[in-house]
């Protein structure tokens, strides 16, 4: 029966190919949506858990946007008073408070913008992923620590001189970090006081990253730190919940569009099989006259539906694999705190869900054509020419 079902589908190759292309497009869209959503959720949770901090102090304004910009390695238009760092370090629940001052430095002649980040010794304790590819850690005011991409762009190695024409300063490259896959790779790290002087922001900070002695004290510590003048507290748990809620709303909308696409794919299967059974009325009548049961005829058309759905789903998986990287490049810039790991990653769960859904849809689409085929009266069918 399977060989006969495949032969029937190849009788009208153009029609079958059009049906398969519609199914493949619907499956590819659904697969990308499910894989993208799951990868974003797990990647975001993994990256936030690995940052070694529980909360951040950011300037007044939109706290979640400010925290996302800092974590993605971007400068802010507003800043914190450095007194916020002192007060945070006095809190009994705070194990580590690491200051950050980040400023963007446009390089119009080179067509790019560099991000200079001022840090102190606590940055190494907070960023557990930092490893030196060569050189040493910053010690002097004119030292600069380069991320892997920044060193490659500037063609600099430890011990080289680096001149910044926009600020009129000359630095010594004290070290180069190994590639981490984070925004650190493209940044220029200098001592905190140096960065503040470079950009004429003495005693100002972009943010303060806080690690607690006990994460269970998060609620009480947040309330106390919230009272620091000019600062507001953002916990990473709140941040992740907010971002996932935003993603959830967008996901629901896209899921509705994906289901419409799947419904259209089901209609194409229905039309293809119905047209096929109408064209084969005489053939089906001959089968019935030869003693083939109604159940066998029903099963034959149902197999054709399942075969169409299976081939369309497999083609959809292949299409999603090809289009996934391009879709990721388009949407990643619009995601808050997008993980560095690939987003549209297929998992066995996603594959199983899509395969089960599409086989079910294909079978439902083929029920009426199969029922109509098995009800063809042999005598009436044989009279047709």
Automatic annotation (TrEMBL):
Top-level taxon of origin: Bacteria
GO molecular function: transmembrane transporter activity
Domain MacB-like periplasmic core stretches: 16-227
Key words, A-Z: Cell membrane, Membrane, Transmembrane, Transmembrane helix
Entries under InterPro entries matching the protein: ABC3_permease_C, MacB_PCD, Macrolide_Exporter_MacB
Start and end residues of each ABC3 transporter permease C-terminal domain: 257-378
Main subcellular location of this protein, as a coarse class: membrane
Keyword RNA-binding attached: no
Residue intervals passing through the bilayer: 252-275, 296-323, 343-368
Membrane topology: Multi-pass membrane protein
Subcellular locations according to the entry: Cell membrane
The keyword Cell membrane belongs to this UniProt entry's keyword annotation: yes
Pfam family, one: MacB_PCD
One GO cellular component term: plasma membrane
Family assignment from sequence similarity: Belongs to the ABC-4 integral membrane protein family.
Record-given protein name: Putative ABC transport system permease protein
């Amino acid at each position: 029966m399977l060989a006969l079902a495949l032969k029937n589908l190849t009788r009208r190759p153009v029609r079958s190919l059009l049906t398969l292309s519609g199914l493949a497009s619907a499956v590819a869209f659904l697969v990308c949506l499910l894989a993208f959503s799951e990868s974003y959720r797990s990647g975001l949770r993994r990256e936030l858990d690995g940052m070694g901090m529980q909360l951040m102090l950011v300037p007044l304004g939109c706290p979640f946007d400010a925290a996302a910009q800092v974590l993605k390695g971007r400068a802010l238009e507003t800043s914190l008073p450095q007194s916020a760092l002192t007060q945070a370090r006095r809190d009994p629940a705070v194990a580590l408070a690491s200051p950050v001052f980040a400023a963007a430095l446009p390089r119009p002649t080179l067509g790019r913008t560099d991000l200079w980040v001022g840090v102190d010794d606590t940055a190494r304790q907070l960023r557990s992923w930092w490893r030196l590819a060569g050189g040493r850690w910053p010690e002097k005011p004119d030292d600069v620590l380069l991320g892997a991409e920044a060193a490659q762009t500037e063609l600099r190695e430890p011990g080289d001189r680096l001149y910044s024409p926009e600020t009129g300063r000359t630095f010594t490259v004290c070290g180069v970090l190994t590639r981490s896959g984070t925004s650190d790779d493209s940044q220029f790290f200098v001592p905190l006081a140096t960065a503040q002087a470079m950009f004429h922001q003495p005693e100002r900070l972009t943010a303060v990253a806080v690690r607690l002695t006990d994460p269970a004290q998060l609620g009480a510590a947040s309330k106390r730190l919230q009272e620091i003048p000019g600062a507001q507290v953002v916990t990473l748990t709140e941040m992740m919940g907010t971002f996932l809620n935003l993603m959830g709303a967008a996901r629901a909308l896209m899921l509705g569009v994906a289901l419409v696409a799947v419904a259209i794919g089901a209609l194409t299967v229905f039309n293809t099989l119905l047209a096929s059974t109408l064209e084969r009325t005489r053939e089906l009548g001959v089968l019935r006259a030869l003693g083939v049961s109604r159940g066998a005829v029903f099963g034959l058309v149902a197999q054709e539906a399942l075969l169409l759905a299976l081939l369309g789903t497999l083609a959809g998986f292949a299409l999603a694999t090809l289009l996934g990287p391009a879709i990721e490049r388009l949407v990643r810039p619009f995601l808050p705190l997008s993980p560095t790991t690939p987003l549209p990653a297929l998992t066995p769960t996603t594959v199983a869900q899509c395969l089960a859904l599409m086989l079910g849809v294909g079978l439902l689409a083929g029920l009426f054509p199969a029922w109509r085929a098995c009800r063809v009266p042999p005598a009436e069918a044989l009279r047709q020419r």
